[in-house]
Write a structure and sequence with these properties.
alpha/beta, Four Helix Bundle (Hemerythrin (Met), subunit A), Rossmann fold, 434 Repressor (Amino-terminal Domain), 3 domains, eight-stranded mixed beta sheet, 8 strands, elongated, binds guanosine-5'-diphosphate, binds magnesium ion
Protein backbone atom coordinates (compact mmCIF):
# COMPACT_ATOMS: atom_id res chain seq x y z
CA UNK A 1 0.00 0.00 0.00
CA UNK A 2 1.15 3.46 -0.84
CA UNK A 3 0.66 4.70 2.72
CA UNK A 4 3.14 2.16 4.02
CA UNK A 5 5.80 3.16 1.53
CA UNK A 6 5.40 6.83 2.37
CA UNK A 7 5.53 6.13 6.10
CA UNK A 8 8.68 4.07 5.70
CA UNK A 9 10.31 6.84 3.71
CA UNK A 10 9.35 9.35 6.37
CA UNK A 11 10.81 7.30 9.20
CA UNK A 12 13.90 6.53 7.15
CA UNK A 13 14.60 10.24 6.92
CA UNK A 14 14.83 10.25 10.70
CA UNK A 15 16.91 7.10 11.03
CA UNK A 16 19.28 8.43 8.37
CA UNK A 17 20.25 11.38 10.49
CA UNK A 18 23.50 10.98 12.41
CA UNK A 19 21.79 12.42 15.48
CA UNK A 20 18.30 13.52 16.32
CA UNK A 21 17.34 16.81 17.93
CA UNK A 22 14.19 18.85 18.41
CA UNK A 23 14.27 20.16 14.85
CA UNK A 24 14.56 16.64 13.48
CA UNK A 25 11.51 15.55 15.47
CA UNK A 26 9.54 18.56 14.29
CA UNK A 27 10.35 17.94 10.68
CA UNK A 28 9.45 14.25 11.10
CA UNK A 29 6.07 15.30 12.43
CA UNK A 30 5.50 17.67 9.51
CA UNK A 31 6.28 14.85 7.09
CA UNK A 32 3.97 12.46 8.95
CA UNK A 33 1.16 15.00 8.80
CA UNK A 34 1.58 15.37 5.07
CA UNK A 35 1.65 11.63 4.44
CA UNK A 36 -1.42 10.93 6.58
CA UNK A 37 -3.50 13.81 5.27
CA UNK A 38 -2.71 12.91 1.68
CA UNK A 39 -3.99 9.42 2.50
CA UNK A 40 -7.35 10.82 3.47
CA UNK A 41 -6.82 10.69 7.21
CA UNK A 42 -8.93 13.28 9.00
CA UNK A 43 -7.02 16.54 9.50
CA UNK A 44 -8.18 17.05 13.07
CA UNK A 45 -7.14 13.52 14.01
CA UNK A 46 -3.77 14.02 12.38
CA UNK A 47 -3.12 17.13 14.43
CA UNK A 48 -4.10 15.40 17.64
CA UNK A 49 -1.81 12.53 16.76
CA UNK A 50 1.12 14.79 15.94
CA UNK A 51 0.68 16.73 19.15
CA UNK A 52 0.90 13.52 21.15
CA UNK A 53 3.95 12.37 19.21
CA UNK A 54 5.68 15.70 19.75
CA UNK A 55 4.92 15.77 23.46
CA UNK A 56 5.93 12.21 24.11
CA UNK A 57 9.06 12.53 21.97
CA UNK A 58 10.36 15.74 23.43
CA UNK A 59 8.75 16.27 26.81
CA UNK A 60 8.44 12.88 28.44
CA UNK A 61 11.45 11.18 29.91
CA UNK A 62 12.91 8.55 27.66
CA UNK A 63 14.26 5.23 28.82
CA UNK A 64 17.89 5.49 29.80
CA UNK A 65 18.94 2.75 27.38
CA UNK A 66 17.34 4.34 24.34
CA UNK A 67 18.94 6.97 22.17
CA UNK A 68 16.65 9.85 21.30
CA UNK A 69 16.32 8.42 17.80
CA UNK A 70 15.13 5.07 19.12
CA UNK A 71 12.87 6.77 21.61
CA UNK A 72 11.19 8.79 18.85
CA UNK A 73 10.79 5.71 16.63
CA UNK A 74 9.14 3.86 19.47
CA UNK A 75 6.82 6.78 20.25
CA UNK A 76 5.75 7.04 16.60
CA UNK A 77 5.12 3.31 16.42
CA UNK A 78 3.16 3.20 19.68
CA UNK A 79 1.07 6.21 18.76
CA UNK A 80 0.30 4.88 15.29
CA UNK A 81 -0.83 1.58 16.79
CA UNK A 82 -3.09 3.43 19.20
CA UNK A 83 -4.33 5.68 16.41
CA UNK A 84 -5.34 2.71 14.29
CA UNK A 85 -7.53 1.25 17.00
CA UNK A 86 -7.69 -1.73 19.27
CA UNK A 87 -7.14 -5.38 18.67
CA UNK A 88 -10.25 -7.51 18.30
CA UNK A 89 -10.74 -10.93 19.82
CA UNK A 90 -13.40 -12.91 17.97
CA UNK A 91 -15.96 -14.88 19.94
CA UNK A 92 -15.67 -18.58 19.44
CA UNK A 93 -18.67 -19.62 21.52
CA UNK A 94 -22.27 -20.08 20.41
CA UNK A 95 -23.53 -16.72 19.18
CA UNK A 96 -25.66 -14.77 16.73
CA UNK A 97 -24.29 -12.16 14.36
CA UNK A 98 -26.06 -9.49 12.31
CA UNK A 99 -24.25 -7.82 9.40
CA UNK A 100 -25.51 -4.46 8.20
CA UNK A 101 -24.28 -1.63 6.01
CA UNK A 102 -24.92 0.29 2.83
CA UNK A 103 -25.14 -1.06 -0.74
CA UNK A 104 -22.01 -2.59 -2.12
CA UNK A 105 -20.07 -2.28 1.12
CA UNK A 106 -19.39 -6.01 1.12
CA UNK A 107 -22.07 -7.43 3.47
CA UNK A 108 -22.85 -10.55 1.49
CA UNK A 109 -19.20 -11.37 0.79
CA UNK A 110 -18.32 -10.69 4.43
CA UNK A 111 -21.11 -13.03 5.56
CA UNK A 112 -19.47 -15.76 3.48
CA UNK A 113 -16.00 -14.85 4.73
CA UNK A 114 -17.06 -14.92 8.38
CA UNK A 115 -18.79 -18.26 7.80
CA UNK A 116 -15.50 -19.55 6.46
CA UNK A 117 -13.62 -18.01 9.38
CA UNK A 118 -15.79 -19.41 12.18
CA UNK A 119 -15.98 -22.77 10.48
CA UNK A 120 -12.19 -22.91 10.41
CA UNK A 121 -12.34 -22.45 14.21
CA UNK A 122 -14.24 -25.71 14.42
CA UNK A 123 -17.70 -24.16 14.84
CA UNK A 124 -20.89 -25.20 13.11
CA UNK A 125 -22.05 -22.26 11.02
CA UNK A 126 -25.27 -21.19 9.32
CA UNK A 127 -25.94 -18.15 7.14
CA UNK A 128 -29.28 -16.42 6.65
CA UNK A 129 -30.20 -14.49 3.51
CA UNK A 130 -32.35 -11.67 4.89
CA UNK A 131 -31.67 -9.11 2.19
CA UNK A 132 -35.25 -8.79 0.99
CA UNK A 133 -34.60 -5.94 -1.44
CA UNK A 134 -32.50 -7.72 -3.99
CA UNK A 135 -33.48 -11.26 -4.96
CA UNK A 136 -30.04 -11.77 -6.45
CA UNK A 137 -28.54 -11.22 -3.00
CA UNK A 138 -30.16 -14.43 -1.75
CA UNK A 139 -28.69 -16.45 -4.59
CA UNK A 140 -25.31 -14.83 -4.08
CA UNK A 141 -25.25 -15.93 -0.46
CA UNK A 142 -26.59 -19.38 -1.32
CA UNK A 143 -23.63 -19.90 -3.63
CA UNK A 144 -21.14 -18.68 -1.06
CA UNK A 145 -22.71 -21.00 1.55
CA UNK A 146 -22.21 -23.93 -0.83
CA UNK A 147 -18.68 -22.85 -1.55
CA UNK A 148 -17.62 -22.75 2.11
CA UNK A 149 -19.94 -25.62 2.98
CA UNK A 150 -22.14 -24.15 5.72
CA UNK A 151 -25.89 -24.27 6.34
CA UNK A 152 -28.06 -21.82 4.47
CA UNK A 153 -31.48 -20.44 5.41
CA UNK A 154 -34.01 -18.16 3.71
CA UNK A 155 -37.62 -17.89 2.52
CA UNK A 156 -37.71 -17.18 -1.20
CA UNK A 157 -39.94 -14.24 -2.13
CA UNK A 158 -40.56 -13.21 1.50
CA UNK A 159 -40.51 -9.42 1.97
CA UNK A 160 -40.32 -9.37 5.76
CA UNK A 161 -36.71 -9.88 6.88
CA UNK A 162 -37.75 -10.56 10.47
CA UNK A 163 -39.85 -13.53 9.34
CA UNK A 164 -36.88 -15.04 7.52
CA UNK A 165 -34.72 -14.66 10.61
CA UNK A 166 -37.40 -16.17 12.85
CA UNK A 167 -37.73 -19.25 10.67
CA UNK A 168 -33.96 -19.65 10.40
CA UNK A 169 -33.59 -19.49 14.18
CA UNK A 170 -36.24 -22.15 14.67
CA UNK A 171 -34.48 -24.51 12.27
CA UNK A 172 -30.83 -23.80 13.05
CA UNK A 173 -28.72 -25.98 15.32
CA UNK A 174 -25.58 -24.05 14.44
CA UNK A 175 -23.05 -22.59 16.87
CA UNK A 176 -22.74 -19.39 14.90
CA UNK A 177 -25.52 -17.91 12.84
CA UNK A 178 -24.78 -15.01 10.50
CA UNK A 179 -27.52 -12.75 9.09
CA UNK A 180 -26.96 -10.88 5.82
CA UNK A 181 -29.30 -7.88 5.70
CA UNK A 182 -30.41 -5.40 3.06
CA UNK A 183 -28.47 -2.24 2.30
CA UNK A 184 -29.44 1.26 1.24
CA UNK A 185 -27.59 3.95 -0.62
CA UNK A 186 -27.69 5.97 2.61
CA UNK A 187 -28.86 5.34 6.16
CA UNK A 188 -32.57 6.11 6.40
CA UNK A 189 -35.66 5.55 8.51
CA UNK A 190 -36.75 2.48 6.56
CA UNK A 191 -33.41 0.77 7.08
CA UNK A 192 -33.53 1.61 10.78
CA UNK A 193 -36.98 0.02 11.04
CA UNK A 194 -35.95 -3.07 9.14
CA UNK A 195 -32.89 -3.61 11.33
CA UNK A 196 -35.03 -2.97 14.37
CA UNK A 197 -37.44 -5.69 13.22
CA UNK A 198 -34.59 -8.16 12.78
CA UNK A 199 -33.13 -7.23 16.16
CA UNK A 200 -36.38 -7.94 17.99
CA UNK A 201 -36.44 -11.57 16.87
CA UNK A 202 -32.71 -12.15 16.62
CA UNK A 203 -31.33 -10.44 19.74
CA UNK A 204 -27.85 -10.49 18.18
CA UNK A 205 -24.72 -10.95 20.27
CA UNK A 206 -22.64 -9.13 17.67
CA UNK A 207 -23.79 -6.50 15.21
CA UNK A 208 -21.16 -5.78 12.61
CA UNK A 209 -21.30 -2.75 10.39
CA UNK A 210 -19.68 -3.40 7.03
CA UNK A 211 -17.93 -0.41 5.43
CA UNK A 212 -15.76 -0.23 2.37
CA UNK A 213 -12.25 1.20 2.79
CA UNK A 214 -12.55 3.19 -0.41
CA UNK A 215 -14.87 5.71 1.24
CA UNK A 216 -11.92 6.82 3.39
CA UNK A 217 -12.64 8.96 6.44
CA UNK A 218 -16.38 8.94 5.70
CA UNK A 219 -16.24 5.46 7.27
CA UNK A 220 -16.04 7.18 10.66
CA UNK A 221 -19.23 9.15 10.04
CA UNK A 222 -21.02 6.00 8.90
CA UNK A 223 -19.94 4.11 11.98
CA UNK A 224 -21.23 6.93 14.18
CA UNK A 225 -24.56 7.10 12.43
CA UNK A 226 -25.26 3.38 12.46
CA UNK A 227 -24.08 3.14 16.03
CA UNK A 228 -26.55 5.78 17.21
CA UNK A 229 -29.38 3.78 15.69
CA UNK A 230 -28.47 0.12 15.93
CA UNK A 231 -25.74 -0.29 18.54
CA UNK A 232 -22.83 -1.60 16.53
CA UNK A 233 -20.43 -3.96 18.35
CA UNK A 234 -17.78 -4.01 15.64
CA UNK A 235 -16.92 -2.75 12.18
CA UNK A 236 -15.75 -4.82 9.22
CA UNK A 237 -13.66 -2.71 6.86
CA UNK A 238 -13.63 -4.36 3.43
CA UNK A 239 -11.57 -3.78 0.29
CA UNK A 240 -8.42 -2.96 2.23
CA UNK A 241 -6.57 -4.62 -0.64
CA UNK A 242 -7.53 -2.16 -3.30
CA UNK A 243 -7.81 1.22 -1.67
CA UNK A 244 -5.32 3.97 -1.00
CA UNK A 245 -7.75 5.30 1.57
CA UNK A 246 -7.61 2.32 3.92
CA UNK A 247 -5.59 4.23 6.53
CA UNK A 248 -8.17 7.00 6.46
CA UNK A 249 -11.04 4.55 6.90
CA UNK A 250 -9.41 2.63 9.75
CA UNK A 251 -8.28 5.67 11.69
CA UNK A 252 -11.67 7.34 11.32
CA UNK A 253 -13.46 4.25 12.61
CA UNK A 254 -10.93 3.86 15.41
CA UNK A 255 -11.75 7.39 16.53
CA UNK A 256 -15.45 6.55 17.03
CA UNK A 257 -16.62 4.45 19.91
CA UNK A 258 -16.93 1.35 17.78
CA UNK A 259 -14.03 -0.94 17.22
CA UNK A 260 -12.71 -2.57 14.08
CA UNK A 261 -13.35 -6.31 14.20
CA UNK A 262 -12.30 -7.71 10.83
CA UNK A 263 -10.74 -6.44 7.64
CA UNK A 264 -11.48 -7.75 4.17
CA UNK A 265 -8.39 -8.01 2.03
CA UNK A 266 -9.63 -9.55 -1.21
CA UNK A 267 -12.53 -11.18 -3.00
CA UNK A 268 -11.89 -14.77 -1.99
CA UNK A 269 -13.58 -16.32 1.05
CA UNK A 270 -10.30 -16.71 2.90
CA UNK A 271 -9.42 -13.04 2.38
CA UNK A 272 -10.46 -11.91 5.85
CA UNK A 273 -8.31 -11.05 8.87
CA UNK A 274 -9.09 -10.49 12.51
CA UNK A 275 -8.13 -6.88 13.09
CA UNK A 276 -4.95 -6.27 15.01
CA UNK A 277 -3.63 -2.72 14.93
CA UNK A 278 -0.09 -3.76 15.88
CA UNK A 279 0.08 -6.18 13.01
CA UNK A 280 -1.44 -3.62 10.69
CA UNK A 281 1.00 -0.85 11.60
CA UNK A 282 3.91 -3.29 11.64
CA UNK A 283 2.95 -4.34 8.13
CA UNK A 284 2.83 -0.72 6.99
CA UNK A 285 6.27 -0.02 8.40
CA UNK A 286 7.73 -3.20 6.93
CA UNK A 287 8.88 -4.52 10.30
CA UNK A 288 6.21 -6.88 11.61
CA UNK A 289 8.10 -7.54 14.82
CA UNK A 290 9.08 -3.98 15.58
CA UNK A 291 9.03 -4.53 19.32
CA UNK A 292 11.48 -7.39 19.20
CA UNK A 293 13.57 -5.40 16.79
CA UNK A 294 13.59 -2.39 19.11
CA UNK A 295 14.72 -4.59 21.97
CA UNK A 296 17.55 -5.91 19.91
CA UNK A 297 18.55 -2.45 18.76
CA UNK A 298 18.76 -1.44 22.40
CA UNK A 299 20.86 -4.42 23.43
CA UNK A 300 23.21 -3.95 20.54
CA UNK A 301 23.64 -0.31 21.25
CA UNK A 302 25.20 -1.25 24.56
CA UNK A 303 28.04 -3.39 23.28
CA UNK A 304 28.42 -2.43 19.68
CA UNK A 305 28.41 1.02 18.31
CA UNK A 306 25.99 1.02 15.42
CA UNK A 307 26.76 4.62 14.63
CA UNK A 308 30.40 3.86 13.82
CA UNK A 309 29.55 4.07 10.18
CA UNK A 310 28.98 7.78 10.44
CA UNK A 311 31.87 8.69 12.66
CA UNK A 312 34.82 6.34 12.32
CA UNK A 313 36.99 5.65 9.41
CA UNK A 314 35.44 2.98 7.22
CA UNK A 315 37.57 -0.17 7.25
CA UNK A 316 37.00 -3.86 6.63
CA UNK A 317 36.76 -4.19 10.39
CA UNK A 318 33.93 -1.64 10.68
CA UNK A 319 32.26 -3.23 7.69
CA UNK A 320 32.49 -6.58 9.46
CA UNK A 321 31.05 -5.13 12.66
CA UNK A 322 28.16 -3.79 10.67
CA UNK A 323 27.58 -7.18 9.09
CA UNK A 324 27.62 -8.90 12.44
CA UNK A 325 25.33 -6.34 13.97
CA UNK A 326 22.95 -6.57 11.07
CA UNK A 327 22.86 -10.36 11.32
CA UNK A 328 22.01 -10.28 14.99
CA UNK A 329 19.16 -7.93 14.25
CA UNK A 330 17.34 -10.51 12.23
CA UNK A 331 15.69 -10.39 8.82
CA UNK A 332 17.87 -8.28 6.61
CA UNK A 333 15.02 -6.47 4.93
CA UNK A 334 13.58 -5.22 8.20
CA UNK A 335 16.96 -4.17 9.49
CA UNK A 336 17.76 -2.28 6.35
CA UNK A 337 14.56 -0.33 6.49
CA UNK A 338 15.22 0.48 10.14
CA UNK A 339 18.63 1.75 9.17
CA UNK A 340 17.11 3.92 6.57
CA UNK A 341 17.63 1.93 3.40
CA UNK A 342 14.05 1.86 2.29
CA UNK A 343 12.50 -0.49 -0.21
CA UNK A 344 15.66 -1.97 -1.64
CA UNK A 345 15.12 -3.99 -4.78
CA UNK A 346 14.15 -7.51 -3.70
CA UNK A 347 16.87 -9.41 -5.54
CA UNK A 348 19.49 -7.15 -4.02
CA UNK A 349 18.38 -8.13 -0.53
CA UNK A 350 18.19 -11.83 -1.35
CA UNK A 351 21.53 -11.79 -3.05
CA UNK A 352 23.05 -10.05 -0.04
CA UNK A 353 22.14 -12.85 2.37
CA UNK A 354 24.33 -15.30 0.46
CA UNK A 355 27.11 -12.80 -0.09
CA UNK A 356 27.22 -11.93 3.56
CA UNK A 357 28.18 -15.50 4.43
CA UNK A 358 31.01 -15.46 1.89
CA UNK A 359 32.24 -12.08 3.10
CA UNK A 360 32.22 -13.29 6.63
CA UNK A 361 34.47 -16.26 5.95
CA UNK A 362 36.87 -14.11 3.92
CA UNK A 363 37.09 -11.50 6.66
CA UNK A 364 37.69 -14.27 9.18
CA UNK A 365 40.77 -15.26 7.20
CA UNK A 366 42.26 -11.77 7.33
CA UNK A 367 44.79 -10.46 9.82
CA UNK A 368 43.87 -7.55 12.03
CA UNK A 369 46.28 -5.41 10.09
CA UNK A 370 44.49 -6.26 6.86
CA UNK A 371 41.13 -5.55 8.39
CA UNK A 372 42.31 -2.08 9.26
CA UNK A 373 43.91 -1.37 5.90
CA UNK A 374 42.42 -3.02 2.82
CA UNK A 375 45.16 -1.58 0.61
CA UNK A 376 47.64 -4.08 2.06
CA UNK A 377 45.63 -6.90 0.49
CA UNK A 378 45.28 -5.10 -2.82
CA UNK A 379 49.04 -4.66 -3.01
CA UNK A 380 50.10 -8.27 -2.33
CA UNK A 381 48.82 -11.20 -4.35
CA UNK A 382 50.25 -13.53 -1.70
CA UNK A 383 47.74 -12.07 0.77
CA UNK A 384 44.92 -12.55 -1.70
CA UNK A 385 45.77 -16.21 -2.27
CA UNK A 386 46.15 -16.83 1.48
CA UNK A 387 42.72 -15.34 2.20
CA UNK A 388 41.17 -17.32 -0.66
CA UNK A 389 42.62 -20.57 0.65
CA UNK A 390 41.66 -19.82 4.23
CA UNK A 391 38.08 -19.06 3.39
CA UNK A 392 37.50 -21.67 0.71
CA UNK A 393 36.77 -18.99 -1.89
CA UNK A 394 38.50 -18.28 -5.18
CA UNK A 395 41.04 -15.50 -5.59
CA UNK A 396 38.57 -13.81 -7.90
CA UNK A 397 36.04 -13.84 -5.05
CA UNK A 398 38.52 -12.02 -2.86
CA UNK A 399 39.21 -9.46 -5.58
CA UNK A 400 35.46 -9.00 -6.08
CA UNK A 401 35.07 -8.46 -2.39
CA UNK A 402 37.84 -5.87 -2.41
CA UNK A 403 36.24 -3.99 -5.29
CA UNK A 404 32.92 -3.97 -3.52
CA UNK A 405 34.51 -2.85 -0.32
CA UNK A 406 36.29 -0.04 -2.16
CA UNK A 407 33.03 1.07 -3.71
CA UNK A 408 31.41 1.16 -0.30
CA UNK A 409 34.39 2.97 1.15
CA UNK A 410 34.05 5.62 -1.53
CA UNK A 411 30.38 6.01 -0.78
CA UNK A 412 30.90 6.18 2.94
CA UNK A 413 33.40 8.97 2.41
CA UNK A 414 30.88 10.81 0.30
CA UNK A 415 28.31 10.31 3.04
CA UNK A 416 30.55 12.00 5.49
CA UNK A 417 31.23 14.89 3.23
CA UNK A 418 27.74 15.37 1.97
CA UNK A 419 24.64 14.32 3.86
CA UNK A 420 22.36 15.07 0.93
CA UNK A 421 24.18 12.37 -0.95
CA UNK A 422 22.29 9.67 0.87
CA UNK A 423 18.93 10.69 -0.48
CA UNK A 424 20.42 10.95 -3.94
CA UNK A 425 21.74 7.43 -3.57
CA UNK A 426 18.35 6.10 -2.58
CA UNK A 427 16.81 7.65 -5.65
CA UNK A 428 19.48 6.04 -7.78
CA UNK A 429 18.80 2.68 -6.18
CA UNK A 430 15.15 2.91 -7.01
CA UNK A 431 15.99 3.74 -10.59
CA UNK A 432 18.26 0.70 -10.67
CA UNK A 433 21.23 2.81 -11.68
CA UNK A 434 23.39 1.95 -8.76
CA UNK A 435 26.43 -0.25 -9.33
CA UNK A 436 25.89 -3.66 -7.76
CA UNK A 437 27.18 -3.78 -4.23
CA UNK A 438 27.39 -6.32 -1.49
CA UNK A 439 24.80 -4.65 0.69
P1 LIG B 1 -23.16 -5.89 -0.39
O1 LIG B 1 -23.97 -5.15 -1.38
O2 LIG B 1 -22.86 -5.05 0.80
O3 LIG B 1 -23.72 -7.23 -0.03
O4 LIG B 1 -21.73 -6.14 -1.09
P2 LIG B 1 -21.14 -7.46 -1.74
O5 LIG B 1 -20.76 -8.42 -0.68
O6 LIG B 1 -22.06 -7.97 -2.78
O7 LIG B 1 -19.80 -6.89 -2.37
C1 LIG B 1 -19.77 -5.91 -3.39
C2 LIG B 1 -18.51 -6.12 -4.24
O8 LIG B 1 -17.35 -5.87 -3.49
C3 LIG B 1 -18.39 -7.53 -4.75
O9 LIG B 1 -17.96 -7.49 -6.08
C4 LIG B 1 -17.33 -8.16 -3.86
O10 LIG B 1 -16.62 -9.17 -4.52
C5 LIG B 1 -16.45 -6.96 -3.57
N1 LIG B 1 -15.73 -7.09 -2.28
C6 LIG B 1 -16.23 -7.30 -1.05
N2 LIG B 1 -15.26 -7.36 -0.11
C7 LIG B 1 -14.09 -7.17 -0.76
C8 LIG B 1 -12.70 -7.10 -0.35
O11 LIG B 1 -12.33 -7.20 0.85
N3 LIG B 1 -11.78 -6.88 -1.32
C9 LIG B 1 -12.14 -6.74 -2.64
N4 LIG B 1 -11.17 -6.52 -3.53
N5 LIG B 1 -13.41 -6.79 -3.05
C10 LIG B 1 -14.39 -7.01 -2.14
MG1 LIG C 1 -25.50 -8.09 -0.44
Amino acid sequence: MDLGKKLRETLAKLTNKPYVDEDAVKSLIKDLQRVLISNDVNVKLVFELSKRIEERSLKTKKLEALSLKEHVLKVVYDELVQFMGETYTPRVDKHKVLLCGLFGSGKTSSTGKLAYFYKSKGLKVGVVAADVDRPAAQEQLEQLAKQVNVNYYTIKGEKDAAKIVKKALSESKDDVILIDSAGRSAFDEKLAQELDGINKVLKPDETFLVVSADIGQVAGKQADQFNKNVNITGVIVTKMDGSGKGGGALSAVAATNTKIAFIGVGEKMEDVEVYNSKRFVGGLLGVPDIEALMEKVQKLAQDEDLSKIQTDEFTIQTFYDQLKAAKKLGPLKGVMSMMGLVDLPKDMVEQSEGKMKKFESMINSMTNEEKRDAKLIRKASSRISRIAKGSGCSEQDVRDFLSQFEKMEKMMNMFKKNRGFRSKMEKMMKGGKLPKMGM
